[in-house]
UniProtKB/TrEMBL annotation:
Domain of life: Eukaryota
Protein name: Glycerol-3-phosphate acyltransferase 1, mitochondrial
Residue segments, region Disordered: 1-25
Membrane topology note: Peripheral membrane protein
Protein task: Mitochondrial membrane protein that catalyzes the essential first step of biosynthesis of glycerolipids such as triglycerides, phosphatidic acids and lysophosphatidic acids. Esterifies acyl-group from acyl-coenzyme A (acyl-CoA) to the sn-1 position of glycerol-3-phosphate, to produce lysophosphatidic acid. Has a narrow hydrophobic binding cleft that selects for a linear acyl chain. Catalytic activity is higher for substrates with a 16-carbon acyl chain.
UniProt enzyme class: transferase
UniProt-annotated location(s): Mitochondrion outer membrane
One Pfam family cited in the UniProt record for this chain: GPAT_C
One GO process term, biological-process aspect: triglyceride biosynthetic process
Length: 936
């Protein structure tokens, strides 16, 4: 049987050549200077890779396509920045054979995850179609893993044997509490075992034809066989919207306001005609006209382009089966992906097109409404909307525009069309999932309540990239204004993409759930009273604050009636829905190899690490990710995956060949802006450990407070569990714009309690059972506890009344494990939040000399310059704390907490210190509160 073929008909496998003697290694290692161009995974010659493996230094192998590399004879200097191609003294051509893949199995590249070198079967799905063989490897053999020293081994030592044999977790299940019927509706036990598929790997087996001609033109045949035709999409949308009675009333109202401004006493038909033309111009931007022919052509072009600069685009076949099953229910679907790149717009449509699912109508910002490009977007299903849906340039409510948008969405849902909405509103500049902007989601909810459709199915989507095409937004993180999109910038970006390798992409579709079921479920249970940071966080910062001040601006309780005409109830309901969706989409995002390597280098080995040790820690961390039910966007031999990530990180990493056993020494570049780029990638894994990092920093705050107050009682390292829960909850509120640990249907303090129980299970915290009677009662005294609002209590009254062990649970005390490896793990978790806490503490220092009132934009610019200056003067511990996103989030938190008093003047926000923080002592308490969580 022949090997799988590429689009051009050439075989997919590569052949290996002879090896080179290991004594020639130093000469080859010197040539790490010239950049790799048009290569996959760093493309190292097989002879050098074998030699390096003999010295336990493993370089990446190339999988899945034939490359011929001509190598120059010159040898540059010994050190380099970023991973470069190793040269040899003579010119040669290389063809490599992927290890661990059974030759002749055509479906391996299609059905398995990315394999970098040897396939690690412990991370592959149990698909029956996937056939692999495990090559022996000294550092990852089954019997040796428990004996190897690792950073995280002791934290989950008891799970290690289980983790080595576990399959990939299935991510993206909907909330059982809020949508119990949807939980079982489209899911079955066979779905998780269906495995992964590379969408951009297309050959003759994906068409109805066979033979050399089919192999040569398989892309063309594939796109021609996709099920896409004009009748699938909406028709007469513009006329139906304009003839809608609500739009007619909005036109009359707009015309009457215009007549009143002009001093006219009666409406004139000329004003109405003018308003109708205005409405038609708005709809010309808003209404998309999908062209099936252009979708086919774009699908063919994207197959070519994606194969040129992406190694693969992986999807889970089980997730696509749920989406296909959802399409058979004859209900509109709303896809809500995370937003990390402009490629997101095309990526989702391309994947659905390849699986015969009709293209969604994509809501895009009007900043992309540029000549030629806008026409292409319209033909592919995109429609442009304003960033602020209901505001005119003069700041007044634009009733006409909002009515047109509502009726347009209702019309699409009435015709059972699919929608694609980016809740974040803009691409994430920090690598973390941003807070949701529920403007367009509220339009979908209103359309459902107006009976435009019997139901709407919501599908959160997680997207992960090895490398972001836009360039990691370092210029914007330095405070430079965002450049407006143009046709030239789009063309320049395409040509730039063709010259680089962007690694792998992973797209995960979460389980569809019924919007109607979610809303009905919310109507049947009491909606908690929304509390601002002024009520949740401020009592922890200022314990001595009088109670009457805490209750000054307490929001009124939401009524028992579920009438959505009551605006506070409607906003809270939609905000909770948006938070549910973003939490699920973020949980669905796979962790990529660049995320793990960047995180290890920044927060575990900031001063550098040997390559062999980095590989060991990488292996351990990917086990930890799987243990927390997050998926990985890669599989395979750890050495090859690490080298793949190092190559993609480029100039953010410096590689030096040391004289000690020819060891590679990997050092992160901690200067600005390279450290911003590393932080961007590292934030891709932050959500996995965010909850545990909060507990670790709260542990430090409590222990540091005890030592600072010089408590001379018994057992100074013992802390109260309830005290730890409350401290962790206050830190979650402080970092509410940086990460989310709980769903709206969960109690935050209960989630923190469960995280502490995990620490106990890991062995990081020990229950101080024998010392319970010796602990002083002063240990649990908290002056600020009386000011904590009742809804924040992590134990309900019913639990205390029904439990026979309520008092024992309330008096539970813990002590931190003194094991060296446990201490290292806790230190790693604390460092994860170091940049965030340093940015917030620096903001607290900044307001000591704050003189207001001042415009918010000006205040933000001054704060960001102050953060940058701390980095330039080497005052900052973490240079990545000076990003513009962190400065912006710190200002938001301080406004919500009541540090700043905000007033509106025209369309600008004016900030000044509130009366609470005018005294210098209160500003100092705020600084001390934040500093208590920081490990110096």
């Amino acid at each position: 049987m022949t090997s799988p073929a590429k689009a051009d008909g050439s075989p997919r496998h590569l052949e290996d050549t002879s090896s080179v003697a290991s004594e020639h290694l130093p000469q080859h290692v010197e040539a790490l200077q010239r950049p790799l161009t048009r290569t996959r995974l760093g493309l190292f010659p097989a002879r050098w890779r074998l030699a390096l493996r003999k010295s336990r230094q493993h370089l990446p192998s190339l999988l899945g396509r034939r490359e011929r590399v001509s190598l120059p004879a010159s040898l540059p200097a010994r050190s380099c920045s970023g991973l470069q191609l190793v040269s040899e003294p003579r010119r040669c051509s290389v063809r490599l054979l992927p290890k661990g893949i059974v030759a002749g199995k055509k479906k391996i590249m299609e059905d398995t995850a990315l394999s970098l070198g040897t396939i690690d079967v412990s991370y592959l799905s149990s698909s029956a179609e996937c056939t692999v063989t495990r090559c022996k490897h000294s550092s990852e053999e089954w019997g040796e893993c428990n004996s190897r020293p690792t950073v995280f081994r002791s934290a989950t030592l008891k799970w290690k044997e289980t983790l080595l044999g576990r399959n990939r977790p299935f991510v993206g299940r909907c909330c059982y509490v809020c949508t119990p019927q949807s939980w079982d509706k489209l899911f079955n036990t066979n779905i998780p075992s269906l495995g992964l598929r590379n969408v951009i790997y297309i050959n003759e087996t994906h068409t109805r034809y066979r033979g050399w001609l089919a192999r040569r033109f398989c892309y063309t045949l594939f796109v021609q066989e996709r099920d896409v035709h004009k009748s699938m999409f909406a028709n007469n949308v513009m006329e139906n919207v304009l003839n809608n009675s609500r739009v007619q009333n909005a036109i009359i109202q707009e015309s009457s306001e215009s007549s009143a401004v002009n001093g006219l006493d009666q409406l004139e038909s000329r004003n109405i005609n003018r308003t109708k033309k205005k409405a038609r111009r708005i709809l010309q931007e808003m209404v998309a006209n999908i062209s099936p022919s252009l979708i086919r052509l774009t699908g063919w072009v994207l197959l070519k382009l994606f194969n040129s600069f992406f190694w693969n685009i992986q999807i889970h076949k089980g997730q696509l089966e749920m989406v296909k099953a959802a399409t058979e229910l004859n209900l509109p679907l709303v896809f809500l992906p995370v937003h990390k790149s402009h490629i997101d717009y095309l990526l989702l449509t391309f994947i659905l097109f390849c699986h015969n699912i009709k293209a969604p109508y994509i809501a895009a910002g009007n900043n992309l409404n540029i000549p030629i490009f806008s026409t292409l977007i319209h033909k592919l299903g995109g429609f442009f909307i304003r960033r602020k849906l209901d505001e005119r340039p003069d700041g007044q409510k634009d009733i006409l525009y909002r009515t047109l948008l509502h009726v347009h969405v209702e019309e699409l849902l009435r015709q059972q069309q699919f929608l694609e909405i980016f809740l974040e509103g803009t691409r994430s500049r920090s690598g973390k999932v941003a807070c949701a902007r529920a403007g367009l989601l509220s339009v979908v909810v209103d359309a459902l309540y107006s009976n435009a459709s019997p139901d709407v199915l919501i599908i959160p989507v997680g997207i992960s990239y090895d490398r972001i095409i836009e360039g990691h937004y370092t210029s914007e993180q330095l405070g430079k204004p965002k450049k407006n999109e143009s046709l030239w910038s789009v063309a320049r970006g395409v040509f730039r993409m063709l010259r680089k390798n962007y690694g792998c992409v992973r797209v995960d579709f979460a389980q569809p759930f019924s919007l109607k079921e979610y809303l009905d479920c919310q109507n049947q249970k009491p909606l908690p009273v929304p509390l601002s940071l002024e009520h949740t966080l401020l009592p922890a910062v200022l314990p001595s604050r009088p109670n009457y001040i805490v209750g000054e601006s307490t929001e009124a309780a939401l009524p028992d009636s579920r009438d959505l005409s009551y605006e506070p109830l409607r906003r809270q309901l939609i905000a909770n829905l948006a938070e549910h969706i973003m939490f699920t989409a973020n949980k669905s995002c796979a962790v990529m190899s660049t995320h793990i390597v960047a995180c290890l280098l920044l927060y575990r080995h900031r001063r550098g690490i040997d390559l062999s040790k980095l590989v060991e820690d990488f292996f351990s961390m990917k086990e930890e990710v799987l243990a927390r039910d997050y998926d990985l966007g890669f599989s395979g031999n750890s050495e090859d995956v690490v080298m793949h990530a190092i190559h993609l990180l480029g100039n953010c990493i410096t590689i030096t060949n040391t004289s000690r056993n020819n060891e590679f020494f990997i050092t992160p570049n901690t200067s600005v802006p390279a450290v911003f780029e590393l932080s961007f990638y590292s934030n891709g894994i932050l959500h996995v450990f965010f909850k545990e990092a909060v507990i670790a920093c709260s542990l430090h705050a409590l222990l540091n407070k005890r030592h600072k107050n010089d408590i001379s009682g018994i057992l100074p390292n013992v802390i109260s569990q309830e005290q730890l829960v409350r401290k962790a909850a206050s830190l979650c509120y402080l970092l509410c714009y940086e990460g989310t640990v709980s769903l709206p249907c969960q109690l935050l303090c209960q989630v923190c309690h469960e995280a502490i129980e995990q620490f106990i299970q890991y062995g990081l915290l020990l229950v101080a059972e024998e010392e319970q009677e010796d602990i002083s009662s002063s240990l649990t005294e908290q002056n600020w506890e009386k000011n904590i609002p009742e809804p924040l209590s992590w134990r309900s009254d019913e639990e205390d009344e029904d439990s026979d062990f309520g008092e024992e649970q309330r008096d539970c005390y813990l002590k931190v494990s003194q094991s060296l490896e446990h201490q290292q793990y806790i230190s790693f978790l604390q460092k994860l939040l170091g940049p965030l806490l340093e940015a917030y503490s620096s903001t607290a220092i900044f307001i000591h000399n704050f003189s207001g009132p001042v415009r918010e934009t000006e205040c933000l610019q001054k704060l960001h310059k102050y953060l940058i200056s701390r980095t330039e003067k080497n005052v900052a511990v973490y240079a990545e704390s000076a990003t513009y996103c962190l400065a912006k989030n710190a200002i938001k938190v301080f406004k919500d907490m009541g540090v700043f008093k905000e007033t509106k003047q025209k369309r600008e926000s004016i900030l000044e210190l509130s009366s609470t923080f005018l005294p210098h002592c209160n500003r100092q308490k705020l600084l001390e509160f934040i500093l208590s969580f920081i490990v110096l």
